[in-house]
Every structure is written in structure tokens, then in C-alpha cells.
Amino acid sequence: MPEQQQVAAFLDQYEMRADPAYQLLDLTSEVGELAADATKSSQWGASPENLDVKTDELGDALFSLLAVAESLDIDAGDALRESLEKYQRRIVDTGSASSDE
User: Do 99 and 83 meet the contact criterion of CB atoms below 8 Å apart?
Assistant: First the structure.
């Protein structure tokens, strides 16, 4: 079962469906936890070789992202494919995937 469907089933099973705005706040919180752990483990970027990201924390952020997609009725796989195509066009056009160029 694809990941987004697993998240949707979990949300339904535990009655965790929520408004997209709430889901976005939860996603922001989870990504913030990742950033805080990365900041501390790398001594605020001074020792990037010490970066420590816990898989369960990354999983929490991924769960939240898929819950956002589900709450907005967006297929996460389609969104990812669209994004990859956009990056490929940028690389062909500008030599970089960055939107800052």
C-alpha cells in the first residue's frame, strides 16, 4: 500500500482527520523538531560531520507531510513528479535546480 494511503487509513482508524491549516501547523512543528535536533547535534552548524537525524523524527515529518497532502486531496506522488519535472526544466534552462538563479 503506498505511503499516502497508509497515512489516510491511519488517520481514519484513529479519527485524526483535521483541517489542512492544522495539518500544516503540525508539519511545521515536526520539521522544527528536525531542525532543532540537527542544530544541537552539529553544534549550531560548527560541526556538520556530527549531524544526527533520528529516523523516527524524519518519519514524523513525513507522516505530517502526507497528512497535509491527504487533507488537501493532493496525490503526494503526483506532486513529487511535478516537482521533479520542474527541477529538471530549471537545470536544463539555467544549469541549477535552484529557483534563486
Answer: no
